[in-house]
Every structure is written in structure tokens, then in C-alpha cells.
Amino acid sequence: MEKIIYTPKGVCSRQMEIGIEDDTIVAVKIAGGCAGNTQGVSRLLEGMKIDDAIAKLEGIRCGFKSTSCPDQIANALKEYKAK
Fold first, then answer.
1. Which of 2, 19, 30, 44 is the most buried (most CB within 10 A)?
2. Are 31 and 24 spatial neighbours (Cβ–Cβ below 8 Å)?
3. What's the CA gap between 55 and 10, in Å, rounded?
4. Residue 81, H or E segment
5. Under a CB-based contact definition with an 8 Å cutoff, are residues 42 and 70 in contact?
6. In the predicted model, what is the mean pLDDT of residues 11-38?
7. Domain boundaries, the chain
8. For the residues of 11-80, what is the DSSP string, one character each?
9. Band of residue 63 on the pLDDT scale cut at 50, 70, 90
10. What is the dihedral of CA 17, 75, 60, 20, to 10 degrees?
């Protein structure tokens, strides 16, 4: 399993750890943020293909912020794919 460690920008969460295996998300751990929402998003992403997760999460906003924790997960996944 490969692990992404990502420091989100513009949101309440402080760090995101995403486990990837064969282009599939196998684990997500988010430090900080809205506990119930981040746990829910994490569980929903497990077993999802990277491209599907990006398509579903990219562009989601949190209130008046230009981003959100889900959008930051999409950014982390896009960075991972770009390397």
C-alpha cells in the first residue's frame, strides 16, 4: 500500500493520510475538521477508484470558503496522480 500524506489548505483539517492500492483508495484518515463529516467521507471513499473520487469531490465548497475537506482530498489525489 502506498500512502499519501497531504497538508490541506484553507480548511479546518490539519492533515490527510490516504492509502492507495492498485489505483483504489483503501484507507483515509483526516486529522481535524468536522469529525462526523470527515469520518463519513473517509468511509465512503474506501474502495473507490482515484478518478471516481476526484470527479465526485472536486469543487465542493464549505460555506463561503473556496474549498472544503472533500475538495482538498481531490487535490491530494490529483497531486498523487501527477507524479
1. 30
2. no
3. 20
4. helix 69-82
5. no
6. 96
7. 2-82
8. SSEEEEEEEEETTEEEEEEEEES-HHHHHHHHHHHTT-BHHHHHHHHTT---TTSS--HHHHHHHHHHHH
9. very high
10. -40
Residue 83 confidence class, pLDDT cut points 50, 70, 90: confident
pLDDT grade, residue 19 (50/70/90)?
A: very high
Residue type, 15: Q
Topology given in CATH for the domain delimited by 2-82: Enolase-like; domain 1 (3.30.390)
Dist. CA 60–CA 54, nearest whole Å? 11
